[in-house]
Write a structure and sequence with these properties.
The protein has 333 residues and is an all-alpha fold. Helices cover 76% and strands 0% of the residues. Helix 2 packs parallel to helix 10 and helix 5 runs antiparallel to helix 6. Pfam families: SBF_like.
């Protein structure tokens, strides 16, 4: 009951609902939409700069060389999810339409999120260094792997092109600020250690910005009005069940594989996410001449559910007692 009460009254979760409602009623358009995009990118870059400043070079290196953890996360993203997506075919046509199934399968093929995976790992006091490497690497290779999976498993036009700017965007917006944070660490790490509020503010603020931008864009593209209400309800139920299954597999799978608690949090958050930021542009390229708005609807719904559910999980783990001796893994508050 205490967990339920804390969850219902959690300010961060209430903030996500409020921001989603606000964006649905007053979506950003025109200049405001451009400004929102830039503010969101700046907030995410600042988040990674702070992560870089908080992590010691030794901890960052430990995150990079943790190949076993990264391999399992990649397997969840590009093997487990696609297998579950193919299994959902049994729901057609009795439960979901062909177009919505195409969207369900597509969401299972897109890369993991970067910013929110790392932010939730940070909030839950997990291995942030491992999350940075896993989430970033998953997103980078997803630029190539996702189109190949779509071609292999789905019917598309076949005219798939890879935009090199996608990789450049990841480097400039995520990895470069992280490297800058590492460089300025000697001058700012003491202040950041004494003041955890800036990191928490940027963690949560960047997630709220992503939610607002996603709902705003969906309203501008009339995604919600393109399908019947009862079908949206069915997609919500299927996405919720899919997320619950993957969360269960990643959490208990991490325990079975013998990962440390902080690494299990990385597997939980990075292995269960799907990226709206990567999925939407890919869908626009891969599904030319097809109902793109309807196809991306499951991804849009799954993205919001994963943010809300993982908010609850991250806040729950954030309230656990501090260990008597900090582990070698870097844990961002």
């Amino acid at each position: 009951m205490k967990l339920l009460r804390d969850t219902v009254l959690d300010p961060f979760l209430l903030g996500i609902f409020a921001v989603a409602a606000l964006a649905s009623l007053f979506p950003a358009t025109g200049t405001a939409e451009d400004v929102l995009g830039w503010v969101t990118r700046i907030a995410i870059a600042l988040l990674f700069l702070i992560y870089g400043a908080r992590l010691s070079p030794r901890d960052a290196w430990n995150g990079i060389k943790h190949w076993r953890l990264h391999s399992v996360i990649l397997a969840c993203t590009y093997l487990l999810f696609p297998a579950l997506g193919l299994a959902l075919r049994i729901l057609v046509p009795g439960v979901i339409s062909d177009d919505l199934y195409t969207g369900m399968l597509f969401l299972c093929l897109v890369p993991s999120t970067v910013q929110s995976s790392i932010a939730f790992t940070s909030i839950a006091r997990g291995n942030v260094a491992g999350a940075v490497v896993s989430a970033s690497f998953s997103n980078i290779i997803g630029v190539f792997v996702t189109p190949l999976l779509v071609i292999a498993l789905m019917t598309t036009t076949g005219s798939v092109t890879i935009d090199p700017s996608s990789i450049l965007d990841i480097v400039v917006q995520l990895l470069l600020p992280f490297a800058v944070g590492q460089l300025i660490r000697p001058w700012v790490t003491g202040w950041l250690t004494r003041h955890s509020a800036p990191t928490k503010l940027v963690d949560r603020g960047s997630i709220l910005l992503v939610v607002f931008a996603a709902f705003s864009e969906s309203m501008n593209q009339n995604v919600w009005s393109s399908v019947a209400v009862w079908r949206i309800g069915v997609v919500v139920a299927v996405c919720t069940a899919l997320l619950a299954l993957v969360l269960t597999i990643t959490w208990y799978g991490g325990k079975w594989l013998g990962f440390a608690f902080e690494d299990r949090l990385v597997l939980l958050f990075c292995g269960s996410k799907k990226s709206l930021a990567s999925g939407l542009p890919m869908a626009a390229v891969l599904f030319v001449g097809q109902p793109v708005g309807l196809i991306v609807l499951p991804l849009l719904i799954f993205h919001q559910i994963q943010l809300m559910v993982c908010t609850v999980i991250a806040q729950h783990f954030a309230r656990r007692p501090e260990p008597e001796q900090s582990p070698v893994s870097s844990v961002a508050d």
